[in-house]
Design a protein that fits this description.
The complex is a heterodimer of chains A (285) and B (355). Chain A has 285 residues and is an all-alpha fold. Chain A has helices at residues 6-9, 17-45, 68-106, 112-121, 128-140, 147-171, 176-183, 188-199, 201-217, 220-225, 234-243, 249-269, 271-281. Helix content of chain B is 66%, strand content 1%. The chains are: A mainly alpha (285), B mainly alpha (355). At the A-B interface, α2, α3, α4, α5 and α6 of A face α3, α5, α6, α7 and α8 of B.
Amino acid sequence: MKAPFAGSLRLGIPRSIGDWAALGALCFFLGVFVMPLYLMAVTGLKEGTNVSLSSMWNLPQSLTGGGFSEAWKRLSPSMVNSLLMTIPATIISSVLGAVNGYVFSKCKFKGSNVLFIVFVFGMFIPYQSIIIPLVKFLQTINLYGSVLGLIVVHVIYGIPITALLFRNFFDTLPNELIEAAKIDGATLMNVLLRIMLPLARPAFIVAGIYQFTNIWNDFLFGVTIVPNPKAQPITVALNNLSGSFSVDWNVVMAGAVVAAIPTALIYIFLGKFFVRGMLAGSVKG
Amino acid sequence: MSSEQSKYPIGRSLFEGVSSESLPKTKSRRQNRGPLLPVFLVTPSAIAIIVFIYAFILFTLWTSVSRWNSPVMNLSLRDPAWITYSQMFGAVRWQCDLRNLGVFTVIFLVVAIGVGLLLALLLDRKLVASGFFRNVFLFPYALSFIVTGVAWRWIFNPEAGVNLLFSACGINKLLALFGAPPLKPGWITDPSILFPVNDILGKVFPPVNDLSVQLGIPVALIPVVIAASWQLSGFAMAMYIAGLAVVPDELREAARIDGASEWQVYTRVIIPQLTPVTISLVIILGHISLKIFDLVFAMTGAGPGFATDVPGVFVFEQTFKAIRYNTGAAASIVMLVLVAIVIVPYLWRTARRTK
């Protein structure tokens, strides 16, 4: 029954029983995937008195902001910490990544391929296996417990992934570009600054989004390096909020929404680059 | 989006696009000048990597065989050096952790990769709103594991959440008709183990009888697997969509012309073509699973009777709560070895191919 080229001719309208079944299955999964988001939103919007377990699936009875004002009050300081940590760390590690990626792609030297693998292995390790010396080291240099310490840590442990992202990007640029510039008398530094970095704008966006999301969502470094509540990033603050003895679920769910907003906005508005970075880097956690 | 994705044809290699061609003339010129500047440019990063990754790993390794189990640093060796490891492997909690890690990894890989593949194949029919569906399925990947854990803990609250849905769809009324108790699993509060296999395994492999842990599927771990799959199925889907974009249409058409049914086109042509993607997914999701920490920590912690404890949580609690640095270090070294077993062959293979 299937016409050989049915796929290219139809305009998305289901034609066969199989198509209808597929659409039904997609709608089912849509429900499953949206369900937790729905619960987070409606619970967050309820007032404390309305959050009863038996009515958790219902919509809020009135739209007054629910747990959001309390969640914002408790989480906004750590939101600021997260921004102060994430933005500089993202910028610095992207610049470092551009330099490293450029060298690994376009100025190979003896052993550079091996060195590259030595770098890349670093992005797969469980950070638990370096956390003890890291904490001791930060305590020694007085960066333990501070946002600055977290920036340093995220820059260092971002070196492998950003080197990988930029190297893959520079590999797509033709070598002739450099040769031509060299014939015109440009030095390596000139080529890098005047030609390569401006061309690398898409890679900066991809690496920037990737690092922003990763650093924002980090928990292990935040919870081990910053015991001081005043300097904690938002993931740690949210976890503390939900772990407190009497749980105000509306506040916790509103807090979860608040903590998710920056990366969610990036996903919604820059999804194309997000997916590119994700597929090229393919690592999380 | 698919054109963007195919820019990085994953499923083949992380090091895609390495070009070995370089003009011989310029190469000799570059060698004469000496590659000093490039070396100079990567040196700071290289030093950072060597110190903060490799030297730190060695330090952790040393810690794991040392007597350092209090706030006061004591790096003298234990006698015998490996005794921290043997004590740890003898402890019930660590045995639970390894059981949970194994069970979690297997179920999570099957569910996340299976759902991802199914979603990609459904979307590949290019029906209405496929872009919208795809974006929603991938959305959880942008969230923090902490957000996911906090949300799903609420959903699997035994007094509410999914259990209310069970009642709402009438399962419990049906069960009551047969005089059965209502379906109300304790989920993350339930310490029981499904499908205990100690007796069976013990007959085949007697050392199993010496284990102090009940092997099987901990009930409390199931919600954690569901939450992790919710977060990462979309990732598997995106990888498969990128993989499907490079399966040539001619291949499917040829199979159809040869009389293959739709089902056969999928099972005999398309899915085998996606094998490299599947291998990448097993490696990437597998290593995430071996490192899992945040999600479990936010959702259940160690769980009832260590039913959801995993090495990531164990390391954190031993190191920063109990201040037993050597035990925490030993557990983290085991994690590192497990991850390396998965990752090193992968890196090795891709690196060799680029030469």
